[in-house]
């Protein structure tokens, strides 16, 4: 990162406090987590450092309307806006004591610690690049994406949801994660997956797990909501694994296919200019300054995704 200081000092500078102490800083917050406070309309992203000196750097903005709290964006791509006015600014501060999250997360900042030095942005463009956080198991069913045919867009049950996004790959109303090997005594197929009827087809891909002629989805209700009804009290086995059972829940609704995703957003400021709010009002310039990467909460996504209705005058294929 190339940095230019108006005073001719690269990256580092010295300033004096009211009590005569000398403050030394490099704007280096790389080891600090980027946190956020605020709501969907007004947010403050901040980093705190309480090592050699007590300092913080924060970005406040009203440019990030989000679908729910804890996110910058759930859209892959780039967001840009200018640092201007009181609602969109970057501020660097030093304090006379340790600073906590209360300083940024309360509607009214606490009276302590006291600000000793403050540099506020007088120019710059914020660039936020968001991408989906990589995962080897997107649907969280304990089978890797690659083994669920991610490359070939495999869809075992033909429900329009690829297996690597499907919590129930075979559509039998038993989640894939519940059809994997649990006990050492569980029979398995050649690939090492649980195969209750030993027909060579793993249970999580088999529409009739016990091979009794009644498909599995007719032998279970929604497993996650009422599991007690799925067990034969006589044999202490699930009906869908009990060849002696003659029960059918024909027409049971399918499991709701909801999985969790997270997103990471890199925040960078181009052509940043900061001005000292006291003293001789010196300016500090950065050609490019990286504030950090913000990782979102988990977002629940239900597949298949609902198609947006075309707006008036928009043609559909």
TrEMBL record:
UniProt xrefs under InterPro entries: TSP_type-3_rpt
PROSITE patterns from the UniProt entry: PROKAR_LIPOPROTEIN (PS51257)
Gene3D superfamilies in UniProt: TSP type-3 repeat
Domain of life: Bacteria
Protein name in UniProt: Uncharacterized protein
């Amino acid at each position: 990162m190339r940095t230019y200081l108006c005073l001719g000092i690269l990256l580092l500078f010295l300033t004096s406090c009211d009590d005569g102490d000398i403050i030394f800083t490099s704007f280096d917050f790389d080891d600090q987590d980027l946190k956020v406070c605020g709501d969907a309309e007004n947010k403050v992203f901040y980093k705190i450092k309480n090592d050699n000196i007590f300092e913080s750097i924060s970005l406040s903005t009203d440019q990030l309307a989000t679908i729910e709290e804890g996110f910058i964006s759930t859209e892959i791509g780039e967001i840009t806006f200018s640092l201007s006015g009181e609602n969109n600014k970057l501020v660097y501060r030093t304090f006379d004591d340790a600073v906590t999250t209360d300083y940024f997360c309360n509607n009214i900042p606490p009276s302590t610690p006291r600000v000793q030095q403050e540099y506020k942005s007088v120019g710059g463009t914020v660039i936020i690049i968001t991408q989906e956080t990589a995962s080897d198991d997107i649907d969280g069913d304990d089978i890797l994406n690659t083994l669920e045919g991610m490359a070939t867009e495999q869809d075992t049950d033909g429900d329009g949801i690829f297996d690597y996004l499907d919590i129930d790959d075979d559509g039998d109303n038993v989640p894939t994660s519940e059809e994997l090997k649990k006990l050492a005594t569980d029979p398995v197929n050649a690939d090492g997956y649980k195969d209750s009827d030993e027909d060579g087809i793993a249970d999580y891909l088999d529409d009739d797990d016990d091979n009794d002629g009644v498909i599995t989805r007719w032998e279970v209700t929604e497993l996650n909501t009422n599991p007690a009804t799925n067990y034969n009290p006589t044999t202490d086995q699930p009906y869908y694994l009990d060849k002696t059972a003659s029960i059918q829940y024909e027409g049971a609704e399918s499991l709701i296919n909801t999985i969790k995703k997270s997103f990471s957003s890199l925040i960078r400021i181009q052509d940043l200019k900061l001005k000292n709010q006291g003293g001789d009002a010196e300016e500090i310039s950065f050609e490019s300054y990286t504030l950090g990467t913000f990782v979102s909460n988990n977002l629940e996504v239900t597949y298949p995704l609902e198609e947006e209705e075309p707006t008036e005058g928009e043609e559909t294929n």
